[in-house]
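User: Could you check the structure of this?
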Amino acid sequence: MERSRQNDVVLQANSVFMKYSFLAIPVVLLISISCKGPRSEEAILFDSLEKLPSVSVKDAASFSLGNENILLSGKQQELTLETIQLFSAFSAAVKTETESICLDNPVDITKYPFASKQHFQLENDGLEINQLQFISKDKLGITLLYSIKNVDKSPKITQFLFQANTDLKPSILMDSSFGSNAADQVIFDEVTGIFTAKDEKNDWFAVWGTSTDFSMSPRDSDCSRDTSELGTSAGFEITVELAANEERVIPVFIAGSDQGEFTAIETFADLRDGLFSDWDENFALIDSLQNTSKIIIPEEEIQEAYEWSKYEYGLFQVGKDIVNGLESEEGWKYQMLKDFSKQYVEKIDKEVFYSQNDLIQVDYQSVQPLLLDLLGIDADIESRVTYIRPNLPKEWKEASIENLWIDDNKINISISSNTDLISLEITQTQKKAGLSIELPAEYSKVKVLGKEVSNDTKDGYRRILMTGDHVKIEAKK
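Assistant: Sure, the predicted structure tokens are below.
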């Protein structure tokens, strides 16, 4: 029986949010392998995707997956670093006894915070194939996992082919002084099993290959796309024997560098050796963010934009982080959120990568503070006071936020309102921390924990100052 894998990962504090996330996280799903047969460690990674937030990609041409260092985008899966482009496209195929099948028309594409999956259902050939792509936080490369499953009751022998179209040239983020594009050359090293592409005039390199568990041979695929004028193409073939209902996972590692061949190969080796640690680190980070600063509002698209902003940038720190533009009128803030929510998830990686020095990145980071501002949440960290002035758009009758960390205080806030009544319920872990609740002056009858109280009016608002671990306020006009 092959090794199964279950890692408990505890992600400790980082400067933004992890100080407060003491979570032991199962990185892979607990599954019963006795009834399904042995699973490889790589295959179980596919199962763990079910625990990650996801969205369906409607248009493969607009698809993007990346961070500030690397971007995978478009239907042809162009691969670009911040400084140089590596591939203009790459493709995969499988060959059966009767035909060659290009894996270029997935049944569906699903996007996750640091990964994506393409699903291919080849029922007539008795195969089910999934392509999993994921990026590490800081490595200049990408990992691909191709799961090939024989869904027939008899064994099969298939060939898996992978083809890369190189186009080593400056990224569009670089100006003309970075270098002049020249023709690419590719060399295959039979000893290491690594393909290396180099620009003739520059130290720009792309390297790719598979794991040492597979024997491969250079072979061009019939599914190869057209290369650019100065680019080239090269690929490999792996023979896969599959018993009935057996699944095999073939990894492909791709790395690049504008600092020389050694750096590119070193990154390739890091990707290959760090396959599971890279996954664990990404998985633990996203898992810790899912239930932290969890907002529930009537508009699903804006709520989704808030969640994915957390995955991209980490948590906005109330009372510490400052984002420009919040001084504008409330209607503008609400409209800005609605505009960002449209196709936010599908576009965010590409937008951020291609606008690293542009205000649009700041705008995307504003999604969290804008939404918190509409809930009326602010804080004075030094004085240990949280300010809450409900400021919901008229379309929203209720909203809440759970597990919001303000310094070392975890707060839950729920707000509901209608024409004549507004109510708030607040819990906090630091019961000595101050709460300053401000309500419009027209709400003249105020009850705190069911008892009517008097309060002062200033600048058109009634202010209730309290401490404690639980506060409930009801106010009527």
